[in-house]
Specification:
This protein is an alpha+beta fold. It has 16 helices and 26 strands. The strands form seven sheets. An eight-stranded mixed β-sheet has the order 5-4-3-6-2-1-7-8. The longest helix is centred in the N-terminal third of the chain and has 18 residues.
Length: 570
């Protein structure tokens, strides 16, 4: 007899179940998705011992007849698709016909279901994938699926489950994601008889976001939308100050299906580049709608993964949509723009006739200031009060106070100017009266030699003079009064840290950040009234005035309402 042989059906069932049912949260996800496909408006989830011992999902959907319920427990039986073409036009959550059979294979399951048109329902009991019995029963319309002793017959899988708190947290997270995509449905979660989460039916998504993500996001998340052909992008993104140490605050949905996707996650992160620190993650909800034929959801039995036929268009559309909203800095608008603590789904990110960049307060008064570009006329309702520790600029306005970090603000201003000039061909240079000699280590000399043209675009014009020696003939204008050679050495060290595949054409971003930081006004430096007001005027003209290129805030506002609350006037 040969080595290759067919596996017994019970082993096949357990292998298949392992792909669909990874933990209790997987059971909850599959059962809730079935309930949504059945048209449910109210879904109740009850668990015990973090879902290990008991899970029950009850819905008010269309229900099943006795024949349909029995058939649903067999593998690859579904009402969602009938032809191979249907796989490329999926508009339901379920479609593989594996969920119920997989769950039944690794648990003790009971299904009670009844169609509204029938007088009685059906009760079916399963154990380890084996049918124990089916009988008629009285029950309300809808379906209730009860799962006990998950993985009782697969001890190897059982030992990989985490603590009760971890598994319960996973269930809560799954429910929150599904609730965010379905505000028209009520969801309830109970553990050991105690209510843990309640998501009532909502007419709009803004209230549900606060319920799912917590009160900390209230008033800090803003609506965005865009359309690029058949790709529609909508969602809410948090202000840069609302960030977390991990990516769990990023919620991704494709055609209302919660997904995990590196492409979409990267697009969200790229939207916040230079607005939050590298080691932090934004809070954002992304709802992507694409034609079903343009996305493959049949990648893995768990249905968390997707593939796009035009991933480049999707990636670009997401970045543009979120970034355009962020560049408008809506969180810096006067408090009258936001009402109470509600999120603003009605906020239009593209209003007609409004300036590209928003600022905390109005600028009605006119005054003349002498800035670095010479005498200019601008408008402002700000009155410069002075500096705190020669680092923070304070301004008064009829609408409150504003504090500015002078270094971070100037760094943002220089950064955007450098980006613009670099994109136009190169940074402004200042020739040195006498070229300076730079003698570099062999590895650094090789980097400079390989990237002479790129460094010249950034203002450092150098000429080789031997194997490790270079003449520095010009430096960037913004570093004229600083220490350009020290800045250049820092940039060379940055390039050397990238390894052998360093390419300045693609990686100039961190180098320009170094230049902006070194060229900016430093902390602990005195600034007079006119210079401070000129700095504020320049900051107002930035695309994203609220944060420096490294993600630190450039300014903070304290409105009148907050001041009155501090002094107990309200």
């Amino acid at each position: 007899m040969g080595k290759i042989k067919s596996l017994p059906p019970e082993i096949i069932a357990k292998i298949a179940a392992g792909e669909v049912v990874e933990r209790p949260a997987s059971v909850v996800k599959e059962l809730i998705e079935n309930a949504l496909d059945a048209g449910s408006r109210s879904i109740k989830v009850e668990v015990q011992a973090g879902g290990r011992k008991f899970i029950r999902v009850t819905d008010d959907g269309e229900g099943m007849s006795s024949e349909e319920a029995l058939l649903s427990l067999q593998r690859y039986t579904t009402s969602k698709i009938a032809r191979i073409e249907d796989l490329f036009a999926i508009q339901t959550f379920g479609f593989r016909g594996e969920a119920l059979s997989s769950i039944a294979a690794v648990s003790r399951m009971k299904i009670i279901s009844r169609k509204d048109s029938q007088l009685s329902g059906v009760e079916i009991k399963m154990e380890g994938g084996t049918l124990l019995g089916s009988e008629e029963t009285g029950c309300p319309p809808g379906t209730s699926v009860e799962v006990r002793d998950l993985f009782f017959n697969v001890p190897a899988r059982l030992k990989f489950l985490k603590t009760l708190g971890t598994e319960l947290g996973q269930i809560g997270e799954v429910m929150a994601k599904i609730a965010l995509a379905n505000p028209q449905t009520q969801f309830q979660l109970f553990h050991e008889g105690r209510a843990l989460a309640h998501y009532p039916v909502r007419d709009d998504l803004s209230s549900r976001i606060v319920e799912a993500l917590g009160k900390e996001v209230a008033g800090k998340m803003f609506f965005y939308r865009s359309r690029n052909g058949g790709v529609k992008v909508t969602g809410y993104a948090g202000e840069p100050g609302l960030n977390r140490p991990n990516g769990r605050g990023i919620y991704l949905f494709v055609n209302r299906r919660p997904v995990r996707d590196r492409l979409l996650t990267h697009a969200v992160m790229e939207s916040y580049r230079n607005l939050i620190p590298k080691d932090r993650y934004p809070v954002a909800l992304l709802f992507l709608e694409v034609p079903p034929s343009e996305v493959d959801v049949n990648v893995h039995p768990s249905k968390w993964e997707v593939k796009f036929s035009d991933s480049e268009t999707v990636h670009r559309s997401v970045i543009r949509s979120i970034r355009e909203m962020l560049e408008r800095t809506p969180w810096l608008k006067p408090s009258s723009v936001q009402k109470g603590s509600e999120l603003r789904e009605s906020f239009d990110p593209y209003p007609q006739g409004e300036e590209k960049s928003s600022f905390p307060f109005s600028w009605p008064q006119t005054f003349r200031v002498e800035s670095r570009a010479g005498v200019q006329e601008t408008t402002s309702s700000f009155s410069f009060l002075g500096q705190i520790k020669q680092t923070y600029l304070t301004f008064a306005s009829p609408e409150g106070l504003i504090l500015v970090d002078q270094h971070a603000a100037h760094e943002r201003i220089l950064w955007e100017k450098l980006l613009e000039k670099f994109s136009q061909g190169g940074v402004g240079k200042q020739p040195l009266l006498l070229p300076e000699v730079m003698d570099l280590p062999a590895d650094e000399a090789k980097i400079v030699e390989d990237h002479l043209a790129d460094l010249a675009r950034m203002g450092f014009e150098m000429e080789p003079s031997g194997r490790r020696t270079f003449w520095l003939k010009s430096t960037p204008e913004i570093l004229a009064k600083r220490e350009p050679i020290e800045t250049l050495k820092e940039m060379i060290n940055e390039i050397s840290s990238w390894g052998g595949d360093a390419d300045l054409q693609r990686s100039f971003d961190p180098l320009l950040k170094i230049m902006a930081c070194r060229g900016a006004i430093q902390a602990s430096r005195h600034m007079g009234r006119e210079e401070a007001q000129a700095l504020l005027a320049d900051l107002q003209n930035c695309n994203s005035p609220s944060h420096c290129p490294h993600g630190r805030p450039t300014l903070l506002k304290i409105g009148l309402a907050e001041l009155e609350k501090m002094f107990a006037r309200r």
